[in-house]
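Hi R.,

Here's the chain you asked about this morning:
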Amino acid sequence: MIQTMPEKQENAAGQPLLLEMMNIEKQFPGVKALDHARLQLKAGTVHALMGENGAGKSTLMKCLFGIYTLDGGTVTMNGKPVAFTSPRDALDNGVAMVHQELNQVLRRNVMENVWLGRFPTNKFGIVDSKKMYDETKEVFERLEIDVDPKQIIGELSVSKRQMVEIGKAVSYNAKILVLDEPTSSLTEDEVEHLFRIMKRLTAEGVGIIYISHKMDEILTISDEVTIMRDGQWITTRDAKSLTKAEIIRLMVGREMTNQFPPKNNKIGEVLLDVKNFSGRYEPTCHDVTFQLHKGEVLGVAGLVGSRRTELLNSLFGYYTSGGGELTMQGKPISNVTTDEARKNGFALITEERRATGIFGENTILFNSIIANVDSYGKPLLNSKKMDKDTDWVIESIKVKTPSKKTHIKSLSGGNQQKVIIGRWLLTEPDVLLLDEPTRGIDVGAKYEIYQLILNLAEQGKGVMMVSSEMPELLGICDRILVMSNGRLAGIVERGKDFGNIPGEQETIMALAAKYV
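And the predicted structure, written out as C-alpha cells:
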C-alpha cells in the first residue's frame, strides 16, 4: 500500500528542504517509467533512493538532471520551481550527478576529463593547462583522492575512475549531489574514503541523493530512505527505523527469506586445466595455476589491482597470453583471440556493461543474437531463428522489456545484464567467465542471476566469477581463487573454510594482501 508523504518542510534536526520532486511522470514507448513519483531532500543530509532494477530510481534522477523531460509533475529547489533542459543546465544551477556507468574520454588525461566543456582559459582564450592542473590538484587534495591529474584516464582502474568522477562533481560546487551506485567497483577502504567525503560535504550543507543496492551501506551512511517500486513512490523512512529485511520487503513487495538459492550442483571431472598462465603486457597476471571442474562455480577474489579482470580477459583471448598452458577436457588450446576462445567454448561477461557489454543504440534482438550470429546462416540471416532465440532470452531469463525491438539502453541495468548473459548462453559455452555479474543490480535480480549461475553449474558447465562482494562469493561458490598483485595467493575450498567459521573473510583478505 502506498503511504502518504509527510508535508513537513524540515526534519527533526531542523534541516531546510533543499529539493522537492512531486508527482513526477515519465512515459516511454510501451512503458510508464514514473507514476506520480516523489522525493524530498533536506540540506546537509544523505537521502538513499532504493528499489529493484526498473523501479524508476535512475529515471527519476535523469528527470532531475535534465537528461529526460518531465511528462508531468513539479521540481523545486529551495522553494523555487526549476526545469533543467540539459545536464549542463543542471550543473550550472548546483545539481551534479555521478552515473553508475562511467562516460569518460579514455584517451585523454584526468584533468581534461574533469574540466571537459569548461576548460579554464587565459586572456588570449587559450586553454590554461597549469590552472587546470592546479585546480584539479586542489579538488583531489581536498577529497584525499590519490590520482595524478596528468595521467591518461583509461590507464586507471574502474575504482580510480569512479573517484575522479566524484571529484569532478564536487568541482562544480554543487548543492545537490546524486551518486548512482558509487561503490559498485570500490574496495572496503575506498568505500570508507567515499563516506568521509560524503560526511564532509553534508557538513557543508550539501544534500546527497545516494542510489545503492547495498543494504549495509544504506543503513550506515543515510539519514532518510525513499523506496520506489514499479515507478511509484512507496515510502520515505528515517534510516534508523529500518532493517535490511524491511527494506527488501518494501522493495520487492514480498518476503525474501533466503539471499542465495540452494546449491544442488555436483562437482565433476576437470574441465579446464590452467598451468603457469601469464598475460603478456603489464599490468597482468603471472604464473597462475588452477583447475576448473565441470559443475563448479569458482570464485575469484582480490583487492582492486589484484588483476582479477586481467586473468579473465587473458583466458578469453582479449589480452595476449604471455605463457603457460591451457587444457580443455584434456585437449591443449591457445585462446589467442576472442573468436578462438568462443569457438573453444568460452564466454565472457565483462565488468562494464555500458563500455564493453551492450550495444546501447541497438535492440534487444540485436544484443541477444550478436555473439551467435554465425549460426543464423549466410549470406541471408534466418530472421525466424533470431526471433525465436531472442524470445528465449526474454522469457527464460525474465527480461522486463516492452518488446524485442526496444533499444537496450532504455532498460534497467539488471535487465541489460540479463540480456548479455542470455546472449552468451545462446553460444552454449562450456566455460562461463563472469566479471562482477551483479554489479549495480538489486537484491531480487541478483537472486535470479545467482539461480542462472547455479543452473549452469548443474548442467555441468564450469563458471568462474569475479566479485568484490565477499558474501556473494561465499554464498554461491564452491571454491574461491584469491589473487594478489597479479599472482595466485591461494585457493579457499568449501567444506574446509566456508560455513560458519569465524574469520573466513579475514583469511581471504589476508591472502589478497599477500603480494601487495
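The first strand starts at residue 17 and ends at 28.

Let me know if you need anything else.
M.
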